[in-house]
């Protein structure tokens, strides 16, 4: 198990190194001069352009510039924003709190709705309840989060104004109220994905002999599903929940824009529009790190859930 863990961490490190090189390379190869982009709206003069070239080491060879940038990034130093002159690390960390809270709530919505509904659909396979749940899941997967968010804004912000639809609020209680609709808009599509994955995994388990024997013993449906079925479909469920966390990343960008949330997603949109290169580079690296951490966490949870994987890793 330790060998597998070390292997996964090594692969994650190599992946992050590759992503960092690609991000730096693509920015360097973007159309136009880096000096013009880094100047932003400031008037260009030969002296200012020369200062920019010296500040960002643009006269150095490409590989040397990349290694210098990588060394700074390893210390979480991504420079300063072109637009606000604020430290990039401070700007990202300030926005990350809202995005993290949104992701946790959306994940809770997806897990709370998706896992029980998927198990119920598998238990009633072929019946009307199964068809209704499957149809609902298809509709949920087909509806973009920003469209669901717009509908929720109309229903609960305009038609029946019971929940706030703008901003992140102040204080824990107000923040929770402001995040209910965004988390619901993001979580509905993610829950639909969990329903499909859970139903497919449970269908292969519910016909096993040990569940038939449990039903013959007179055990209740709820106990069979929670004690026997859920334990044996936990591995694919964990994998689907990890996939949900990864899929939530691009969806959160649009949801934050729709609800005017000051999160990482809206920061990405603003930075790309303003050609704020240091911020875009930092967000790309943090996005890759997020995906790597989620995948590594799913692997570790899989090792803890299924002893057979630990035995295979030990050999």
From TrEMBL:
Domain ABC transmembrane type-1 positions: 96-298
Membrane topology listed for this record: Multi-pass membrane protein
UniProt keyword annotations, A-Z: Cell membrane, Membrane, Transmembrane, Transmembrane helix, Transport
InterPro entries referenced in this protein's UniProt entry, alphabetically: BPD_transp_1_N, MetI-like, MetI-like_sf
Subcellular location: Cell membrane
Keyword Transmembrane: yes
Top-level taxonomic group: Bacteria
Protein's name in the database: ABC transporter permease
Source species of the chain: Catellatospora chokoriensis
Highest classification ranks of the organism: Bacteria, Bacillati, Actinomycetota, Actinomycetes, Micromonosporales
């Amino acid at each position: 198990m330790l060998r597998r863990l070390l292997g996964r961490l090594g692969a994650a490190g190599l992946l992050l190194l590759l992503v960092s090189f690609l991000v730096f390379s693509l920015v360097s190869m973007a159309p136009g001069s880096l000096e013009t982009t880094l100047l932003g709206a400031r008037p260009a003069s030969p002296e200012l352009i020369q200062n920019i070239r010296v500040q960002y080491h643009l006269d150095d060879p490409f590989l040397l510039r990349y290694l210098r940038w990588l060394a700074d990034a390893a210390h979480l130093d991504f420079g300063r924003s072109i637009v606000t002159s604020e430290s990039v690390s401070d700007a990202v960390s300030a926005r990350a709190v809202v995005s993290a809270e949104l992701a946790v709530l959306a994940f809770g919505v997806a897990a709370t709705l998706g896992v029980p509904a998927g198990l119920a659909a598998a238990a009633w396979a072929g019946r009307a309840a199964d068809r209704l749940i499957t149809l609902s899941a298809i509709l949920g997967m087909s509806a973009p989060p920003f469209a669901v968010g717009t509908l929720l804004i109309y229903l609960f912000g305009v038609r029946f104004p019971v929940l706030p639809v703008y901003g992140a609020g102040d204080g824990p209680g107000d923040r929770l109220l402001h995040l209910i609709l965004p988390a619901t808009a993001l979580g509905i599509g993610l829950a639909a994905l969990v329903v499909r994955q859970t139903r497919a995994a449970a269908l292969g388990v519910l016909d096993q002999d040990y569940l038939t024997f449990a039903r013959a013993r007179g055990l209740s449906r709820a106990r069979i599903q929670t004690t026997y079925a859920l334990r044996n479909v936990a591995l694919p469920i964990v994998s689907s929940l990890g996939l949900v966390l990864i899929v939530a990343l691009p969806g959160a960008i649009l949801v934050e824009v729709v609800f005017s949330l000051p999160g990482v997603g809206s920061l990405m949109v603003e930075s790309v529009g303003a050609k704020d290169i240091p911020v875009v580079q930092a967000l790309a690296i943090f996005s890759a790190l997020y995906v790597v951490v989620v995948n590594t966490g799913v692997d570790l949870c899989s090792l803890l859930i299924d002893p057979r994987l630990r035995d295979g890793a030990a050999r």
